[in-house]
## 1
Amino acid sequence: MQRAQISADRYKQFIPLSLPDRSWPDQRLSAAPRWLSTDLRDGNQSLAVPMDPERKLAMFELLVRMGYKEIEVGFPVASRDDHAFVRMLIEQERIPEDVWITVLVPAKDEAIRQSMQSLRGAPRATFHLYNATAPVFRQVVFKMSRDECKDMAVRGTHVMMKFAERTLADCDLRFQYSPEVFNETEPDFAVEVCESVMDAWEPGPGREMILNFPTTVERSQPHVFADQIEWLDRNLRRGEHVCLSIHPHNDRGTGVAATELGLLAGAERVEGCLFGNGERAGNVCLVTLGMNLLTAGIDPGIDFSDIDEVRQVAEHCTGMPVHARHPYAGDLVYTAFSGSHQDAIKKGMDALSREAGEAGVPEGDLPWRVPYLPLDPNDVGRSYEAMVRINSQSGKGGVAYVMSAHHGVDVPVADRREFADVIQSMADAEGGEITSDRIAAAFTSMYRETP
Ligand SMILES: CC(=O)SCCNC(=O)CCNC(=O)[C@H](O)C(C)(C)COP(=O)(O)OP(=O)(O)OC[C@H]1O[C@@H](n2cnc3c(N)ncnc32)[C@H](O)[C@@H]1OP(=O)(O)O
Ligand SMILES: CC(C)C(=O)C(=O)O
């Protein structure tokens, strides 16, 4: 059936703010930001089947093991499970001393009261208040003027402070405010609301505040977001006790890019989820961000040395598979099927082992310089075995690599062409992958030599 084409006239380009003297393109990242995992909140609220307490705990413990120090553990007024999970963490004293849990709370008196109750007895916590500030929300959802919208945030802050005094006297409490849909909010209004909320909370020593700027629905190219963050950083009146945080989503598929440019532009903290779980096209992926830093020589402060364990726990908790091509963690991201890639990998691995031998050090101590592989698979707990797999796209270098890496046989250079042609014929005839064992069997039958 013929369908009408989509009319692009229905959609409008995002109008960027003007920042001709932007300085972020000349910045370089030199340290990791503060991270907050929102796997147990934004990640959880987007699942068809939200995590039960067992899966929530498995995710919390994974995040702690990986080294996340700020973890949004739920939206206490959302469900019985969300509330119960916060209580369980506190009552069973499961929160390590250097970890801050966060709860997300809409700016409504009763939600604030109940969320505060969920935190009773917590030694330290972040209370995260939000309301949407963008025009479409003011006009369509809340039917409020700018002033009424600002008052909603300020009133929420005062109510939170009042309840905190009663309920959380012994808690080391941080306050976080998010103008939801910041990216579509008039910049001057975002600043006006945030400064009013800051004035209410009065940040200072022991009263840290986090201002968190979400691209609730990603709508623009990443450099437009970076301009918004640099503009904010210049125009927001904030002192050393106020942290500038970002919370990017991935609706346009540019969440990671927006985050990295946002960091160049002055953001100090990033909120996201493992493998980009989260509403719609997801939150920004914390694994990709962390590994991008690591492979640029910057310690992310997060342990990715067993990426498959991270993946397995995340898949168990979310019920969703990680894509085979997901950066750094997918099944195929350290694998080459194509001949010229395999040849270069083999030459790179041979060179690495030669250099290590000459220097008398383990290969893992040398800088990684193997073509086509952005990092050493061993560093994330993967073996070298899957790096080269053979099908009709492969060549003699790849076949020789499999014989050497899997079977300890160095195929003589003079035989490599002939042997690879036989494997190529098998692959052409069958169309699929030729396993390492079948390659070894072919080698034995051709050269009567058992690997
Ligand atoms: C971008 C984000 O991810 S924000 C976080 C979103 N997360 C969630 O919504 C998950 C948890 N939420 C829930 O469990 C429920 O939506 C609840 C408990 C918060 C509210 O439930 P309900 O009272 O049934 O209301 P409902 O789900 O229809 O939400 C809409 C109401 O919340 C109001 N609202 C929405 N956001 C906010 C906010 N930040 N502050 C105050 N009120 C808000 C809406 O105006 C609407 O109010 P109305 O009923 O007076 O028109
Ligand atoms: C509440 C905020 C931080 C949020 O989740 C969003 O806007 O996506």
## 2
Amino acid sequence: MSSSLGAPRMHAGDRPIRSHKTPPGGEKRPKPPLKKVLPQVWALFRPRLGLVVGSFLLMIVNRACGLVLPASSRYLIDNVMYHGQSSLLPKIIAMVAAATMIQGITTYALSQLLSTEGQKLIAELRRKVQEHIGRLPVEFYDRNRTGVLVSRIMTDVEGVRNIIGTGLVEFVGGLLTASIAFVVLIRLSTRMTLLTFSILLIFAVILMRAFKTIRPIFRQRGAISAEVTGRLTESLGGVRVVKGYHAEESEANVFAGGVQRLLTNVLSSLRAQSMMTLSSTMVLGVVGGLVMYLGGREHTAGRLTVGGYVEYTMFLTFMIAPMVQLVSIGTQLTEAAAGLDRTNEVLAELTEDAGSKRKAELGTLRGDVRFEHVSFEYEEGKPVLHDIDFVARPGTSTALVGSSGSGKSTIISLVCAFHTAQQGRVVVDGVDLADVKLSSYRSQLGVVLQETFLFDGTVRENVLFSRPEATEEQWREACRIARVDEFVERFPEGYETIVGERGVKLSGGQRQRLSIARAILADPRILILDEATSSLDSESEALIQEGLNYLMRGRTTFVIAHRLSTIRRADQILVVEQGRIRERGRHEELLAMGGRYYELYTRQHGVEMNMFLAPGEGDKLEEEAKA
Ligand SMILES: Nc1ncnc2c1ncn2[C@@H]1O[C@H](COP(=O)(O)OP(=O)(O)OP(=O)(O)O)[C@@H](O)[C@H]1O
């Protein structure tokens, strides 16, 4: 039995969110078409239209004020300095001061309004994507790696900051400033402007090409980073296995490989970025020289005043700066659009409850579970279950036994409605599980797995996980029944003790008791038990059995059984082999049949070796044998 039901068997992580849409991790992603992205961007804008329009107005004021300084320089030089109109000076200074102040205030207001909104949106999208991913079917998790999902939730949404945040407004602002500057420049000197402008245009084309090279590098960086982080999380989480197999070195090599790929990626983008800086410096030099040359000649010819020349150079910088900015913001915007597209791709995945079919609300269950000729396959053409047909009556226990890979966990996954059968039906209290609203069903389901899943929180939080609204009395009672109180009270901080990630600070038996307390608190109608294969000492074993006995009472229980005591107590045992039920009945009946069950039971002969034996059970059996 797998440690977690329905957990991925293969390393499916390298496969995509949607196989037909998204290529694997490091590969280049196709750019989403504009036709597709525009409605998505519009959907972001629509609810905050007022804010966006207001910001644009603010931005126009902001940019207009920014142009007062260069525009006033001509009057300062020509009128005040050359022609001694000193009465103009205070007016010029007052205008520049006022404009600068308004510019400062509007810049502040803009960044406050937009950056705040951008960050709020990121938070909102993260919540939305996480919640959505949480509601996706188990197959989705089988298909996608944890690291990739984490980056979907945390990184992909970051880009929207550039759309709603300052990015788009800056983009339009830059466009506006550059256009105004261009008009002023043409008015000052058409010849000079057309010449410099053509050089700048060539430069802009080069820049755009450079960004085109860099863009996929950035995109790849996200994918590589997700992969490396994913693997790192796995190897840190599995540190005991890593150390147990002395695999520190090979893990270090895997990580070093990932880091190297990241480095290569960063270096290649750095190179391109440096080339861009180099070429922009050179272009600025050429344009500067050209303007000096032409300006000098225009002045000598009497077509340009000194003030006009200074104004010209100032406006020129006002045109060049936004042009460079435009190209880089343009890249950010396409990045953001690609991220938004990926986010929407996840949000478009159908949740488990989606579709019109899952409508049936279940009331409190009696717990009658029937498999009616169920066949199932994970992958097309590779059937795993064939014609499974059985009834589990309310309050009874069904033990599943059989060799590894025979299909026991898959049967349990179908009971949990993690998957839906391709043929036949799984019927609970007369309702086909395929039609059931999952929340109304799963809330009545309890699972106790051999690998207990504990959060890095306190003991109390971990017990309350199954029913957060339970009263103190209720959870304490559950802990008492499951004998959690016995060991917790020995901890100095009692129930407030942090159990550590995956509960490593607790022993295996303690973890199991905690997980039983959790299930007792949940009070499920249907209980799934995956018995631990590992042996505990007989004292812990006895305590756990006691808890389980309480837990199973009155509930329909499915247990992937490894303990003889559970199997003997079961109301029915299903012997599963190669996806079919080979034998069924109670322990004595099956033994008497002398078939597969008998074989499994006696295969290892020596009572101590028996595969169904838990500590202490061997003695009982030997006594029976003697009798
Ligand atoms: N998510 C999955 N995708 C594809 N195949 C799967 C998946 N999970 C299980 N299988 C396959 O289905 C078959 C039955 O597996 P299952 O986990 O149900 O067996 P099991 O009886 O519980 O085995 P074990 O006792 O070893 O856990 C196996 O051949 C397994 O490889």
## 3
Amino acid sequence: MSAVLVVNSGSSSFKYQLIDAESEVTLASGLVERIGEPTGGATHTDAAGERTSLELEIVDHTAGFAVMLEAFAASGVDVVADLVAVGHRVVQGGARFFEPTIITDLVRINIDELSGLAPLHNPANLAGIIAAQKAFPDVSHVAVFDTAFHQTMPPASYTYAIDAALAEKYRVRRYGFHGTSHRFVAHAAAEFVGRPVEDLRQIVLHLGNGASMCAVDGGRSIDTSMGMTPLEGLVMGTRSGDIDPAVLLYLQRRAGLSADEVDTLLNKRSGLLGLSGRGDMRDVQTAADAGDEAAKLALDVYVHRARSYIGAYLVELRGVDVISFTAGVGENSPLLRSRILAGLESFGIEIDPVLNTSPDRGARVISTENSRVTVLVVPTNEELEIARQTLAVVGG
Ligand SMILES: Nc1ncnc2c1ncn2[C@@H]1O[C@H](COP(=O)(O)OP(=O)(O)O)[C@@H](O)[C@H]1O
Ligand SMILES: CC(=O)OP(=O)(O)O
Ligand SMILES: [Mg+2]
């Protein structure tokens, strides 16, 4: 048997999944969290779905990997013996990385250098890589970048209209994120409708905690809603998405906020949370159902923003063949799916209310037979996509 370990590291946590290289079955998955805090935690789920949790202090990512290895050993899995490679999610690859890449010393230096363009993500990704390389020194480690899929965007999509020399010097441009998910879903959708991805104009809505949309033309990203950082675009759980940049300056000058405070405001205290006091979409929907005005407005703004991107991408693609919803909200909220695509019959987009509310889980159609555009729900699987890309690089 051979397996790939996929690691998605955050600053104080990491998620992992062990995936069988041939069958693509998940052999185990888990989460190590609150790294560096007095009480950390680890949860491990084995192939049979059996879940074990423990609480203990986990001083750093290296200690976290030791906890993960113990969990594997306790469930009778010899990870080291079966492992052929480790795939790492790296959020920011800048304009330097447009393919999954074997992690050498130089690649690590590059990921570190790109931290300025993703201060919340890349340092954490790097900490995970360093710890994983210590834990598994004998296999290849591969970086799979969130930005890579969007490297096909044309300059008109990725260029901000600011001083060109300054932008060049500081690499200020749009990179786009969630590329692993957008790519996975675009390919899965093409397979589902039985047409070559090259022939399709697609819009993918990745609506999770972080949320972004992507216009995919013939399998290539031509535009996406996130920009230089994962803050631009849609309304998210705690992030504002698009905002007039003058608001930032105004708040600094008039409300006396520092740059760091504005950063925290827009990334951590805005979006659904800022509007309604709730960052989790389920809670916002429940509150709106109960008549909470702030929650209703939060939903209205969320839907309005998503619809404006639908309009933009319809035009950019000169029409669309497939629209896919994915991630936590996209896969689970019939209400938001129907609101985002409401009243677009004249554009050939018609949702079937029965199909839209079906409890089915897998990839499925939610548009009517008459709908010219096929609307799908496609569960994303970033870990599987990372495992596939990792194996492709190491030749597994
Ligand atoms: N049944 C549901 N209805 C509405 N929203 C849901 C439902 N289930 C999950 N969500 C929302 O999905 C979001 C999390 O999405 P997910 O893709 O898991 O996020 P991430 O991977 O970015 O943490 C949360 O806002 C959560 O409320
Ligand atoms: C890049 C990004 O926003 O990722 P996430 O949705 O995991 O926060
Ligand atoms: Mg996610």
